[in-house]
Amino acid sequence: MTVYSQINKNISRYVPFEKEELEIFNSLLEHKKIVKKTTLLRAGEQCSFEAFLIKGSARKYYIDGSGAEVILQLAVEDAWLSDISFSMYEDSPSNVFIETLEDCEFFVFSPESKESLFKKAPRFERAYRILMERHLAVTQNRLFETIAKTATDKYVAFLEQYPEYANRFAQHYIASYLGISPEFLSKIRNKLARL
Amino acid sequence: MTVYSQINKNISRYVPFEKEELEIFNSLLEHKKIVKKTTLLRAGEQCSFEAFLIKGSARKYYIDGSGAEVILQLAVEDAWLSDISFSMYEDSPSNVFIETLEDCEFFVFSPESKESLFKKAPRFERAYRILMERHLAVTQNRLFETIAKTATDKYVAFLEQYPEYANRFAQHYIASYLGISPEFLSKIRNKLARL
DNA sequence: CGAAAATTTGACATGACTCAACTGGAGTGG
DNA sequence: CCACTCCAGTTGAGTCATGTCAAATTTTCG
Question: pTM (2 decimals)?
Answer without folding.
Answer: 0.93
